Amino acid sequence: MRLDLYLVQQGYFPSRQKAIDAIKNNRVKINSSVVAKPSYDIDNDKQIEVMRLEADFVSRAGIKLHYALQYFHVELKNSVCLDIGSSTGGFTDCCLQHGARLVYAIDVGTNQLDTALRCDQRVILRENTNARMLTTADFETLPDFICMDVSFISVKLLIPTVASLLKSGKEAVILIKPQFEVGQRFLTKKGIVKDSRQEKRVLDEIASLLLENNLIQSNYIKSPIKGREGKIEYLVYLIKK
What we know:
By secondary structure, the protein is of the alpha/beta class. Helix content is 26%, strand content 20%.
């Protein structure tokens, strides 16, 4: 099959023209090598990597999740996803572009989700919702995949919820923002962590808590782009035991 058609079929792009543009701009790699021909004959067993731009998603958060999905080889085609801390919808948008058939977008706030996503029948929006209170009874179909991007709260408070909603063998990706984990006294006035050892400490604490909740942490990586004010963030990949 032609590469441009394959990318659309697999949910990488919403249209053939967007796929062609990406290929011609050297943003598509196959087995780690750039391929610039839309007509390239692609086999199913080849590894594809698409380099995304901020404009590809409704917010820059989409770039972060996209990078993690590719790095950890997470397949979302036809899956049901849960986006905790959906905000503008960068993670939700990314899930849909990766082929998710349904995304539950959960946020404690209101009127933040992008208008196009609000109108998308594949998105079930639940605003004014405290994710810590979620139970399996809140979902008609339990998620195959959970992604989480929260601010002004520690992810440690939400890990039990993630564990309770995932079935055995299902996956999750969590964005960790150290400035909301280390404690105020370890931050500069701009909210940047003063000492990288504190980042290591909270990553270790989170790893221990994940294990306590039957979540296997495969690995963590730095986000491909920094947060506001140049803050370093991490992406953690998990599998439920």
